[in-house]
Design a protein that fits this description.
Elements: H1 2-20, H2 49-60, E1 67-72, E2 75-80, H3 83-92, H4 120-130, H5 136-163, E3 166-168, H6 169-186, H7 199-207, H8 212-223, H9 225-231, H10 238-258, H11 265-279, H12 289-320, H13 322-339, H14 344-347, H15 351-363, E4 370-373, E5 378-380, E6 385-387, E7 392-395, H16 397-401, H17 420-423, H18 444-461, E8 462-466, E9 490-495
Parallel strand pairs: 2-7
Antiparallel strand pairs: 1-2, 3-9, 4-7, 5-6, 8-9
């Protein structure tokens, strides 16, 4: 009986798999050949996804196609090749692509119901509520807190140079941004700079811990979301979730009991909740406690990791390009001398420093890809191809940033690319480290501000050069969807004052 069942089932299974893998050929869309069962993801064991998709981009570049078909396991996923189509997706036809398509089961993972994963009107309402927290006025209010942490960072680095000239900067920079975010988001002293094993730093590491298992789980849940929801798969570590719930609960309780007000992210969320409660909005889908925790969680993770990554790559390139480093240091010293300290106005006068940061984020965008989901059938202009509702869309930011069509000598670190006279002629979508359109990164101002402050303090006090341990060429973490260096970033450091 079992043999007869196999005889019936196996051909049907084979036919179903074959049918899945002919999805794009039936639509006359070019695609790299898939392999069962991973589709086009088989190489993720040894390279990060953004490198894999940059290879796809380069392979099909110049063929004239606006899209390329790929397969995540058995699921068809569309890969965007055309920069004008990308602008349509981000802005003109946003109503078809307003969701990111990132898995979240709010019952299994309440801390995951944050701005990045929310969909539809829920996302729109949350975005509009959070936008006031990231205005230039709010950045000015948080600035003094950021400077206080930067001064602690400078002192810690001074002590570190007394031990020797070679320092692992990747971890130090993560500790700096962890303390900045802890202060600006929660009003808490995280003490990561003083104690590498401080609880906030440990939770940051744990939340972003990468492994083949977690990579598989992330790709599986995003590809098979209906099944993942039915199984109520949990993706956030339980200890991380418990820590953030306790931290936010305790901080809110202390502030309410002692009538404490601070100009930080959490205070803004508390006032939003209170305003909604007083107007009755809380009964109509307003803020719930787990939503406040979720927004704090994503602000913490996105804020410390992406900024520390950008700083790490920037120091790496400055260490390898001493002429650029000296030019940036000269500008920093000149502005410091003019203002007497690193005021809010001073840090925004450092145009060349910002060029260095932008060129770093071109070469190494912290988020090298972004995604959208097709929310209703969409006809690709000039292709007579319909992207069906539910199709996942991959947008290759890293590949665009390395396209020699847009950036001649694209692999070269050259901050002068970002001189105003050069940028004026660019396509608005050729440089998008923070995304673009209504769903761009809401924390862009904050992220750039802490990168500017950290880099200005470092260059004003230290000179960086490559050491015997500096990873040349760079290797990236294979199981990470973010641009992350494999191992540490060792540099020689000497004081300049």
């Amino acid at each position: 009986m079992f043999i007869y069942l196999l005889i019936l089932v196996l051909p049907a299974l084979y036919w179903w798999i074959r049918n899945c893998y002919t999805y794009w050929s039936r639509r006359n869309v070019p695609f790299p050949k898939p392999t069962f069962p991973f589709g086009n993801l088989g190489e993720l064991k040894r390279k990060p996804m953004f490198i894999l998709f940059t290879e796809f981009y380069n392979r099909f570049k110049g063929t004239g196609t606006k899209i390329v078909g790929t397969y995540f396991f058995l699921k068809p996923v569309v890969f965007i090749m055309d920069i004008d189509l990308l602008k349509d997706i981000f802005v003109k036809d946003f109503q078809y692509f307003h969701d990111r398509g990132i898995y979240n089961n709010e019952k299994a993972d309440p801390i995951g119901a944050h701005l990045i994963t929310l969909v539809g009107n829920r996302w729109k309402n949350t975005r509009s509520k959070l936008t006031p927290a990231f205005t230039s006025g709010k950045m000015k209010l948080m600035y003094s807190t950021m400077i206080a942490v930067a001064e602690q960072f400078r002192k810690r680095m001074m002590l570190e140079t007394e031990k020797g000239t070679e320092v692992e900067m990747k971890e130090f920079l993560a500790r700096f941004t962890t303390d900045v975010i802890g202060s600006c988001a929660f009003g808490l002293e995280c003490n990561s700079l003083e104690d590498p094993k401080a609880i906030f730093r440990e939770m940051g590491r744990k939340a972003l811990e990468q492994s083949p298992k977690r990579t598989f789980l992330r790709n599986f849940t995003n590809t098979f979301q209906t099944l993942s929801n039915l199984l109520r798969i949990k993706v956030v570590d339980a200890k991380v979730e418990s820590f953030f719930f306790d931290a936010v609960r305790d901080t809110i309780s202390y502030r309410k009991t002692n009538n404490v007000r601070r100009d930080d992210f959490l205070d803004i969320l508390i006032r939003m909740q209170q305003d909604e409660a007083s107007t009755g909005e809380a009964d109509l889908g307003g803020w719930q406690f787990h939503e406040i925790v979720a927004q704090c969680f994503v602000f913490f993770l996105a804020g410390f990791e992406t900024s520390s990554t950008a700083l790490t790559f920037c120091l790496y390139e400055l260490a390898r390009n001493q002429d650029v480093q000296e030019k940036a240091r000269s500008e920093v010293g000149r502005v410091f001398a003019k203002h007497g300290s690193l005021t809010y106005e001073a840090v925004h006068e450092m145009a060349y420093l910002e060029n260095c940061i932008n060129e770093t984020m071109r070469l190494y965008p912290p988020a090298p890809m972004t995604t959208r989901i097709v929310t209703k059938d969409y006809v690709v202009p000039e292709m007579n191809v319909t992207l069906e509702k539910g199709t996942r869309v991959m947008i290759p930011i890293h590949a665009l940033h390395h396209d020699s069509t847009f950036f001649p000598n694209a692999e070269r670190f050259d901050p002068d690319r970002f001189a105003p006279e050069n940028v004026a002629s660019w396509h608005p979508l050729q440089f998008i480290p923070f995304g673009y359109g209504p769903r761009n990164c809401i924390g862009m101002r904050f992220g750039m501000m802490q990168i500017r402050v950290g880099l200005a303090y470092l260059l004003n006090n230290f000179r960086f050069t490559v050491s015997a341990k500096t990873p040349i060429p760079l290797k990236f973490e294979p199981n990470n969807n973010l641009t992350s260096i494999l191992g540490g970033m060792w540099l020689n450091i000497e004081r300049v004052h």
